[in-house]
Amino acid sequence: MIYRELDPSEAGFLKEMLYVSLFVPGEKVPCPRSVLERPELSKYYLKRGSIPHDFAVVAETDGLLVGAVWGRAHLPPHAGYGFVGIDIPEIGMAVNAEFRNQGVGAGLMRRITKHYQEQGLQSISLNVDKRNPANHLYDRLNFQVVKENTHAFIMQKLLNP
């Protein structure tokens, strides 16, 4: 497995991974792809490179992109679902189903964490549905619940404790 920074020409893959990351519990039919055009979701992929702390890593095997993790520091009033504070990137991640539970997600998370540590940032955050199995990964990687609502946890990881 190769982990590398997202190339600007791969922006379409990042959008696809955002779609894959949408957790729809118990539903056999996923959300329509048009949901990605809503402002509350399109802010995660539009204008890549123009928002503070934009960074994305992809996982690649045999020339095939299989997963991605991305982060950016949304500012109010455009804060994301996992907003914790200004200058704290909110990250998102997805791995294609056939590559899950093989360490790909952990590898992606280690790379983006290292990047933000090297940038001198103090923490990163994310939003995850309470029923999403990825919660186990985030727990193992020392993310802590800092807020919650009916359906989701907002988690934060300290990078330079």
Question: How would you describe what is shown here?
Answer:
The chain is 22% helix and 28% strand. The model has no long low-confidence stretch (mean pLDDT 89). The chain is of the alpha+beta class and 161 residues long. The longest helix is centred in the last third of the chain and has 15 residues, at 104-118. The chain is globular and about 35 Å long. The protein has four helices and seven strands. Strand 2 (55-61) and strand 3 form a beta hairpin. It has helices at residues 11-21, 39-42, 104-118, 135-140; strands spanning 2-5, 55-61, 64-72, 90-95, 123-129, 144-148, 152-158. The strands form two sheets. It has a four-stranded antiparallel beta sheet with strand order 1-2-3-4, with helices on both faces. Strands 5-7-6 form a three-stranded antiparallel beta sheet.
What secondary-structure arrangement, pairings included, does this model have?
Blueprint: E1 2-5, H1 11-21, H2 39-42, E2 55-61, E3 64-72, E4 90-95, H3 104-118, E5 123-129, H4 135-140, E6 144-148, E7 152-158
Antiparallel strand pairs: 1-2, 2-3, 3-4, 5-7, 6-7
